[in-house]
Amino acid sequence: MRPLRLALVLFTSMALAGCVSTASLESERTPTRDVERTPAAEPVEAVAEPPACAEWVSEYADQVRFDDVLEVIEGVDPMAGWWASGSGAVRGDGACAPVSTQPVGTVEACAAPTAQLDDVGRAWSGAPAEYMFAGGAQRQIGGWIAGRTSREESIVLDMQAWRFATPSEARNAPILDALAACPDAQTGDSGRVQVLEGAEPVATASVRGRDVFVLRSARPVASDGEDAGLTSTASTLLSSAAMAAAEEWWRTQGRTALDVDPSEP
Question: Could you give the CA distance from residue 201 to residue 240 in angstroms, rounded to a whole number?
């Protein structure tokens, strides 16, 4: 019995030694993982936009009911339908495009634009005229109106006005020289300029005190490209008498709107 007991003890010791050795090997084979930490991101500073040449101001456009001009244009029926849009701006703190960017004597300045009736805003964006602010303008207001006659003919008219610091600056407004350079322009007293297409005005500009007023007539077309303007004039534009009535209305309404002290944009 003694040799058997000794053999059993030796076998047990070897088994225990094998277990310990295996555990030790497993421990050596499994390296400890270091936890990686992502560094906190630094806050990104907001990049400030540069100051603008002009800032939008809603108070100006709110002062004018552009559809009221239809009441003074003979032959136009306000009840036949109309649509309009207006905007206003004041001089900002940023740099403006130079006066030289104003088109002078070009088709853009001298010809009546085509206004598709379902997208009149494409003909006139209403954006601030930077060249006018570069020339000393302090405020701008404007808008367009599309109306209809009882014969289902259309008219489209754009109206703009600017206020300068002094009457002298107004008389030297860049847009006056630009229109006067048109081939069919006529100039009159007190800085008045009129650009004609045949007998009908394409554009009319005038100065009253510190204010400059401009009206432009557009050639209306339907969505299918067909002419939708007046049949009573050769150009399909508003007649000279109709433009004169609209101009007088706009000089009164525009000046009243420019007198409003706008809030900060």
Answer: 6
Q: What does 123-148 look like in DSSP terms, one character per residue?
A: T------HHHHHTTEEEEEEEEEEEE
Q: What is the DSSP letter of 102?
A: S
Q: How far is CA 164 from the centre of its chain?
A: 22
Global pTM reads: 0.80
Give Cα separations from 236 to 120, 179, 233 (angstroms).
Answer: 16, 21, 5
For the chain, how big is the Rg over CA atoms in Å?
38
Query: What length does the chain have?
Result: 265
Q: State the amino acid at position 64 in one-letter form.
A: V
At 214-239, the pLDDT tens digits run 999 999 999 888 999 999 999 999 99
Helix and strand totals (H; E) in the chain: 7, 9
Integer CA distances (angstroms), 181 to 103, 186, 217, 252, in order: 10, 9, 18, 27
CA–CA distance, 102 with 130 (Å, rounded to integer): 9
